[in-house]
Description:
CATH class of the largest domain: Alpha Beta
Helix content: 25-40%
Structural class: alpha+beta
Protein name: Lipoprotein
CATH architecture of the largest domain: 3-Layer(aba) Sandwich
Keywords: Signal
Largest sheet: 7 strands, antiparallel
Signal peptide: 1-18
Order of helices and strands: HEEEEEEEEEHHHHEEEHHEEE
Distance between the termini: 68 Å
Number of helices: 7
Number of domains: 3
Number of strands: 15
Strand content: 25-35%
Amino acid sequence: MKKTGLLFVGLAAVLTLAGCGTKLSTSKTTYSNSGMVAIIKGDASGKSVSYKADTESGKTSVNDGKFTFTVPMSTSKQNVTIKDGDASTKVTVKAAQSLGAYKTVATKYNQAIIATALPANIQKQLQAAATKKQPTKEEVAKMPIAQQQQLVAEQKALQSAMKTATDKTKDQQLPTSVSGLKEVLDVAGGKLRVNVQDGQLISATQIAPIKAMKDKKKQAAFGQMFGLLANSVGADAKKVGADFQKALKDQDGSNTTIKTIKSNGVKFNVGASASDIFIYVTK
Length: 283
């Protein structure tokens, strides 16, 4: 009995020491949006940690006792489980607000990009039609034949121009459907990454090389993309553009970030690396 008792004591000591050797902790218990994702950091004694959230799951290596991984934001709060061997811990990622249904935003953006490729006379025609009451079928039927023929000809010309513009801007249009974190555009105005969860656009990031800002054509393409994106998520594109230009002029060259620009509840955070400029769009 004495030997058996000593054996159990010895095993208990070994297990206690083993438990003490497993180190797993995080820098916070609750994380919020940092651009497009929540950045989770912590300490662990193993070679890697695994994690599982509603929007992402995976494994990341531990370097010098520390680990970092990202979790895409969602409109719902997420509980993230982190494991290192038998040790585990949980953290919370706060819910983010949606910029709107992705399909709605994409449709608005694509319509605008198509319109930029239309001939000037067709653009004027569309602008006039938007402010003028369109005749009903009954009213058209009562028009003289010559006027009816003119309307038909105008409609055919408009349809033809729209098809040409749609085909011309195909590579500049957003895909109609996206899920998760994706790069959806890589054009003259820069790259565009989006986070779409359950059909909702959670965030978008426009990225462009800083050197492109010195090229007038690329600068114009960047501005157009920025403006169309702002307009598509419900912001005042003119105000946002003006605030952005003012912020750039006010920079003293020592900062890599610009004060958050806000419009109609939409936030634009601007940052820069040594080579690129980033515009994070969230709500």
